[in-house]
Amino acid sequence: MKLADFKTYKLELFFFSILVILSYALFSGNDSGAGTESMNNYFWVPSAVMQSIAAVYAVFIAIFALSLQRNLDSIHSIANQLKPPLKIVSYTAVGSIYLNGLMLIIFSLHTPSGLKIELMLFTSLLSLVASLIAIVYLSMEMLSDVSGLKTSSEKYAHLSHLLLELESSDSSGQMELSSGDMELCVQALEDEKPEVRIAAIQLLGQLGSEQAADSLLQKLTDKNPRVREVAVEALGRVGDENTVVELIGCLEDKDKRLRLQAVRALSRLGDERVVDPLIKRLEDKAPEVQAAATEALGNLGSRNAVDALLKKLEETQTKGTPTELHIQVLTALGKIGDEKALDAILPGLDSPYPGVRKHSAYALGNLGDEKAVPHLIKMLADISPEVRNASAYALGNLGDRRAFTPLLRMLEEPDPELRITAVYALGNLRAPQAIDPLINMLEDDNPWVRKCAAEALGKSGDKRAIEVLVNKLNDIDPEVRRIAAGALGISSEYRD
């Protein structure tokens, strides 16, 4: 709560009560008379405090006047806005001056005890501190409110609010900032608090504003490592030619977290120039950077990275226990889809580790080489359900009708996930003999299986599917009804 939010009548009562108590405490229990000369050593303290408070109070009044002068058009409303802090500061200054004035009177007329002298001097200095805090704090607050300046805390709160609005926006990140908010965001990049700079960078990155790229590039040399990381991430969203060059430079940074963010950012930008620098990161000292570089090369889909990935695959195979990196290399090779990776991936189907067999099957499905079909059909009998599922999915991607009979047997699997994948794969074969089995799957007790069967029949374009799909418009599951309606539309497109 701000000091200016206090009710003024409460402040008046508070200061009045304090002054009465202090007046009584200072005048009670003092000896009058001859000891006055010994008090001369202490006169300067309350006197100096009074002068200091008076001087600082004069500065506050000057700030008050300046605030009014900056808003001549709305002088009345601004004056009302500034009255509460003016009262608080005035009460504090007057109370402190009154207290120190009493001390001067006491030191002139009485000889307090040593303990009381120390207490009075401490109280005098405390009153000075209280006055300074009130005046400085409320002066900054006053100028902030009137001139539109914001403290670091206010900037952070405002930027955080904008981030929340952006995340909850239905426009999927297309929200536009007002000119004032954009100006504040850019200014906040130079704030002394790192959390404010981070919030501003995140907001600019989420907005994807290319106009902010130059400002974000400057944050790559920020003294705070977390700010640099967030700046790299944001630049990956903004993206332009200059951004790529700067981010490639970040791949050589000593901080592994910054290198990791740079790899991820370059992956988003999708520029062909980043392939060779990312290939070098396959030998990075940090395993997480190697893994991120592997994933990035797979996402980029450049065939120039195949040889380096095949070499990395060979290295990881010699280590015995499969690592996450080994699986990611398999996945990356599958995404790129170069047929020369076939011979390197096939041995993974014989691995003793289900995870390697599964990802090898997925990779073979993505390669699109029909030479993998017999090997994948064999894997439909694997002991691991995950491997069988991956193999069926891969065969569906390849669309080779040699897989029809093995996939047909898979429709009897007790696991609904396996039946769903088998339905998907059979639908992709576009084999006329698959229509009747798919029609039968419309009566499966699992709604997800029925949905996939309806979609597969819609893609087939076979006239036999129309009548059963019409019947599924009355299915008990609303999603099945929706898919059936969509499938009928798809079926019509194929017939046309």
TrEMBL record:
Organism: Methanosarcina siciliae T4/M
Membrane-crossing residue ranges in chain numbering: 12-29, 49-68, 88-107, 119-140
A molecular function GO annotation: oxidoreductase activity
Entry-linked SMART domains: ARM, EZ_HEAT
UniProt protein name: Oxidoreductase/HEAT repeat-containing protein
Alphabetic keyword roster: Membrane, Transmembrane, Transmembrane helix
One Pfam short name: HEAT_2
Alphabetical list of Gene3D superfamilies matching this protein: Leucine-rich Repeat Variant (1.25.10.10)
